[in-house]
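Thread: "does anyone have the structure for this chain?"

Original post by V.I.:
We have the sequence but no experimental structure in hand. Need at least a predicted one for the grant figures.
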Amino acid sequence: MSDLYLIKIGEIALKKGNKALFEKQLKANIKKIMRPHPTRVTIRSGRFYLEIEGVSEEYVCERLSKVFGITGFTRSYSCAKELDALEEKAFLVAWQNMDAGNGMTFKVETRRVDKSLPMDNYEFSAEIGGRVLDKFPELKVDVRNPDWIIHMELREKGYVYGYTHKGPGGLPVHCAGKGMLLLSGGIDSPVAGYLMAKRGMTLDAVYFHTPPYTSPESLDKVKDLAKILAPWCSGIHLYTVPFTDVQVQINRSVRPETTTLHSRAAMMKIAQSIAEKRGDLALITGEALSQVASQTLESLAYTNSAVDLPVFRPLIGMDKEETILISRKIKAFETSIQPFDDCCTLFSPDHPEVKPDLKKTQEDWKTIEDMDRLLEEAEAKAEKIFIPVSGDIED
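Reply from O.Q.:
Generated one for you, tokens below.
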């Protein structure tokens, strides 16, 4: 027999003429994250209903908690809109809460969508609550601060459920265009990717690797971060670009205090080129204003000038503690703080330029020999892998 989960939506419900497009995408994303398990997803009156067999409630909840567009979900029991049938399911929810040690006070909340029924919300709640008390006399009703709640929704059927798990909110991935995430091994960029996926954006990712200056472990770390992002993003393509020759040439050609700025500009140029071939319409970075020298307003103006695509920086106004909270929430923090340097930290100058002059820095870039060729060669050598929602890397 299939288990039933009632899924609640938030922002999607506010859409008007194109609401069906968002609902269709969310339905597809739910089915995708549940693969290979057979599922049935139906949409009725602003509710999604998931039917699935052969998997634990823990598994389903873990999967649904990573689907943007969902605000809440719960294991539910359907029945006829009759008191005896509702009573049976209410007893089941009550027994489950008592067995789990959730406390001994409760209340019943009813939402009667079907207005043809002879009783109103309060009357349904009072009747079923009384029957629960008769069945379990050790319980008490507390309408103000109960230990747990029996929810009933009376729609085309009756739906009875207990605790509602919180969903991530946002909009379904794949409904807001595509972007290219510059993914480093740090805390910030995975959080930036998560936040853009929450707004419905499809993500590709690019990482710049500089062997032998950076270790194979640093590359493995970034792949692990991509695996963490993959369920949130409904799968993600990761491009690994060999950046050693580009970075060495920059370091030998420009003033030491500007090496990071020019390296960032080179990364943006390569990322844009890959993005355009992928049909991505924006670049995404984990930069926050004035967090480091390369993220001052003047520095960002220079790196912006290296590309034509818009650059989205969802962390721009956040402090580090806010970013760390999200990193912990998505379980990326422990991976991000592993002590393997990326190319940005490894080649950082002792005294970086904080407020570069835009025109002068642009002129300095033009003096770097063979840069166009080196950028093209680095992009041509990029390796691509796909990481599906399961987190298993596919070549």
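V.I.: this helps a lot. Residues 283 and 311 are 5 Å apart (CA to CA).
O.Q.: and The mean pLDDT is 93.
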